[in-house]
Amino acid sequence: MSILRPLKRVFPIAALLAALAVQLFFPNSELQPTTRAPYFTYFLLFLLALYAALIIVSFFSAALAKKLEYGGWFYTGAILFLTGLNIFTSKLAVPPVMYFPSLDRVFGALFDDRRLLLKCLAHSGRLLFFGYFGGSIVGLFTGVGIGFSKRLSYWLSPVIRLIGPIPSTVWIPLMLIVFPTAVSASAFIIALAVWFPVTLMTSSGIANVPQSYFDAGSTLGAGRFVRVVKIGVPASMPHIFLGLFNGACSSFITLITAELIGAKYGLGWYVNWEREMLSYSNVYAGLIVVALVFFLLVTGLFKVRDKFLGWQKGVIKW
Q1: Among residues 149, 306, 308, which one has the least CA distance to residue 234?
Q2: d(CA 90, CA 32)
Q3: Phi and psi (nearest 5°) for 72?
Q4: 71: Cβ–Cβ under 8 A, 6 or more apart, which residues?
């Protein structure tokens, strides 16, 4: 077992070399249109150089070596999956080439449309920023208010139970009439999608804080504001972050859906527009950008959670 662990770092290199061999020595099917350059080959060479550099650095960093050993099987499996997909689509052209383009065409679309994709990414980022953070802030205040005030809970809880479960995308036709622009309407719909899970989990977290915590604070002379800010909110942070995670997933879905209607740019608009043009290589390129962006955002949210909840490491599972 001690010999196998260091070998896990090398397995992805072998998988990348096998992927390169398939790409270089097996010709593409004649049914697949040719590209200006072997973009998938460049991508594999980039991954090979990057991973080789990481292996060299791992000999001087125990933390990096541990991460590479842990992820070795996954990286190998991902590369083998791409190799199988390359054989299935590019080399053999088993599925229809219109809907399943070669990986060279997909990565070529990423390169050729990079400026438009960056512009769409900027538009989507603006919507996501205002919608997600606006919905999160309002949801936190609403959840704290419901958790600590019976009067607010009396008036707001029925409204939340009535409106919250309704998918926010249902409100798109109405919001396009109410708001002056499609951008403001889309931002509000994203905020609405985030507001419900954050409100629900925040109020639930505060309701589950043991009463003994508040009694101890009162004994030590803590006023109502201190009990809310110093006791209630920190103790309910695990639930709050669960709400933020759920809100992030809802915001991603709502963002892509909202951009399908009335938007001039954006990742959702780009994917839908390329689909209507039957340019499926660009569709897959847009989906890759969407997956990468959302992966980075969720990873960043995990990092923030780990920083704030280091004292509860291992308690939150998601």
Answers
A1: 308
A2: 7
A3: -60, -45
A4: none
Q: Which two tokens stand for residue 104?
A: 């060279």
> Phi/psi of residue 303, each to 5°?
-65, -40
What are the extents of the domains in the chain?
4-112, 114-312
**3-state secondary structure at position 192:** helix
Helix or strand (DSSP H, E) at 9: none
d(CA 138, CA 49) in angstroms, rounded, equals 46
Burial category of 136 from C-beta neighbours within 10 Å (exposed 0-12, middle 13-18, buried 19 and up): buried
Closest listed residue to residue 83, CA positions, set 5, 30, 12: 12
Q: What architecture does CATH give domain 114-312?
A: Orthogonal Bundle (1.10)
Q: What is the pLDDT of residues 143-199, one digit of tens each?
A: 999 988 888 888 888 888 888 788 888 888 888 788 888 788 888 999 999 999 999
Q: How many CB atoms lie within 10 A of CB 47?
A: 20
Give burial (CB, 10 Å; 0-12/13-18/19+) of 71: middle
Between 277 and 4, the more confident residue is 277
Q: What's the pLDDT tens digit per position in 40-72?
A: 999 999 999 999 999 999 888 888 888 888 888
Eight-class DSSP state of 315? T
Count the residues in the chain.
Answer: 318
- Give the H/E segment covering residue 277: none
Using alpha carbons, select from 226, 228, 84 the residue that is nearest to residue 148: 228
Contact 31, 93 (CB under 8 A): yes
Find the largest Cα–Cα distance for the chain. Answer: 80
